[in-house]
Amino acid sequence: MDPSSASLMIVSHRAGDRTVVTVSGEVDIDTEQTMQRALRLALARSPGGVDLDLTGVGFCDCSGLNVLLRARRQALADGKTLGIRAAAPGVGRLLDLTDTASLFTHAPAPANGVVHAWHEHSTTTHELMEETGVSDDAEELRTEVVQLKRAMLTRPVIDLARGVLMASFSLTAEDAWNVLVDVSQHTNTKLHQLAEDLVGSVNGAPLPDHVQQRISIAVTEIARPA
Predict the structure, then answer these.
(1) Of 8, 127, 122, residue with least CA distance to 60
(2) DSSP strand pairing (18-27 vs 8-15)
(3) Residues 6+ positions from 212 with CB-CB distance below 8 Å
(4) N or C: which end of the chain has fewer CB within 10 A?
């Protein structure tokens, strides 16, 4: 039986020499260990690797991203691959904002030919190799190291910023994350920079007016009854 928790459901099945892992629920600091154990087990049982279906994931923060990056490193070390064949919009935004989507694009395409927008517009490792003339292995290793370091470095400040929003506006963890993403997109500010600015505002550093305005709009929209 696949590992699961109250807020996370994981189901896997074999597909040729690969394993398809379908994840539903929330992937955060409370469920990351469950997710990590499930992916480790799936990789151990699959000769070719793992394909993830994340369309049922309603929330995923940097904890979940780190689980995916660690599982990918494990897969590569074992001569396998870890790919994302489909993802919920929130997961797609997280991958876009952290520039990590291209690390998971080597999975086989879905049978119905549907490719999500974040997948279509991601620059793949192969495209980078063709432009720069760097070998696949060297470029893949360089990209992986850069993205992993970025995710590890930005996670603490993003989590702190989410906490600031939760405390300031009585938001849930998911709503605070959605506010961060919304403000990042509408103000054209990198997520980690926005998080640093928010944390700095606690110590008296003023936020730019347009950022303050967008935060107010985003919080109001989330608080509005559906």
Answers:
(1) 8
(2) antiparallel
(3) none
(4) C
Distance from first CA to last CA of the chain, Å, rounded? 37
> Cβ distance 169 to 182 under 8 Å?
no
| Per-residue pLDDT tens digits for 2-38 | 555 567 899 999 999 999 999 999 888 888 899 999 9
Bridge partners (DSSP) listed for residue 50 = 19, 82
Answer positive or negative: Cα dihedral of 38, 44, 46, 50.
Answer: positive
Query: What letter would DSSP give residue 99?
Result: T
Q: Identify the residue whose tokens are 């992937």.
A: 27
pTM: 0.52
Longest CA span, the chain = 57
Q: Which residue has the tokens 């506006």?
A: 169
